[in-house]
Amino acid sequence: MSNNKNNTIGYWASQEQYSMQDLLNFVSEAERGGFNSCLTSDHFHPWWHDNGYGNFTWVWMAAAAGHTKKMQFTTGVTSAVYRYNPVIIAQAFASLDVLYPGRIGLGIGSGEAMNEVPAGFDWPSADIRLARTTESIKIISRLWKQGRTTTPKGEDNNEDHNGFVEFYGKYFKVKNAKLYTPPTGKIPLYMAAIGEQAIETAAKYTDGLITLAKPDKANETFGIFDKAAIKEGKDPGSLEKIAKPKISYSEDYDKALKATEFWRASLLEDAFNLDISDPRKLEQKAKDEVSDEKLRQSTLIVTSIEDCIKPLEEYFNAGYTTLYPHSTSPDEIKFIQDFSKRVLPYFNDQNPVN
User: Fold this and answer.
1) Contact at 8 Å (CB) between 152 and 145?
2) Are 192 and 109 in contact (CB under 8 A)?
3) Residue 275 sits in a domain of what CATH number?
């Protein structure tokens, strides 16, 4: 049994793997089945060339929120390093929140070469990417909190009391910027992180952590995160810990296994630091270097949807608060329907609504 009454399961939408129209159908079906939230990728290029997509996630989110009634949408994640200026990110998500109050969230990360290099930028070291991401988070948060009369802890840049923000960092500068269409309320802000310094940054500046740690490895990750949160004066229990375990479901095992192929390149060694931006090259490198066994181990392959329950419970028991099962199933609608009927109710029963 999961041990946290706040545990929730949301729907994952892969912008690289499906058309925008299909994804709209998927989230509509997911909401009908009982899903209340959606985490969705934000890429320029996909991980895989064959049958890949390059949907513009922000446009899709606006349409998806319009196609659903109450579902919340969060990016997982938006890179705030080069191709998106943090001022524009702040503006875009504030506007989305005005259209759909309380239904929009922002996940931020330091990105991959395949999403930044095509826009004409060089791919820097991880330290530089983290530094740029940190500055971006500060800028976005400041713009969203415009009109404050006090400066948030740890920030030493001046802010005009009329809501104009100035920021002079090493990588980004903001010169008297103001969101004339501000958000309606607090927009949740999360950060994807794997390394120790990035995990500490997430704890310090955001509302939660998105990470890839498996349940048996999560203790170390959460130890770093909680310690940094406490040092910042935050209650670790108030912060989200988010994972997106990969699942492929079909009653035909071979079909379920074959459907995992699209994500082979994401298993390349040091995948997030690779200076490869061409999906054709990523695909070929993955075919050469990522074994079938590694592919099998990376994904929970099930022929009975109930077989998802125990592995997902392990994530909750390890300390995760929210899961977005990343389905790469051969029939996504069937996954949604069967998961909604046989898996979601189990967890909802463990977490009754007060």
Assistant:
1) yes
2) yes
3) 3.20.20.30
Distance from C-alpha of 186 to C-alpha of 182, rounded to nearest angstrom? 10
Q: Which amino acid is at 257?
A: L
Detail the DSSP E strand segments found in 152-308. 165-168, 173-177, 189-192, 208-210, 240-243, 246-249, 300-302
What does the block give as tokens for 186?
Answer: 């607090």
For residue 334, the model assigns a pLDDT of 98
313: in domain: yes
Burial of 137-175, coded b for 16+ CB within 10 Å and e otherwise, reads: bbbbbbbbbbeeeeeeeeeeeebeeebbbebebebbebe
The 300-302 sheet, strands edge to edge: 300-302, 246-249, 326-327
Task: Report pLDDT digits (tens) over 124-173.
Answer: 999 999 999 999 999 999 999 983 333 444 444 445 558 899 999 999 99
Containing 40, the helix (H) or strand (E) segment is strand 37-40
Place of tokens 């406490």: 230
In which domain, by residue range, is 12 found? 8-350
Phi, psi dihedral angles at 301 (to 5 degrees): -100, 120
- Determine, yes or no, domain membership for 2: no
CB 167 within 8 A of CB 174: yes
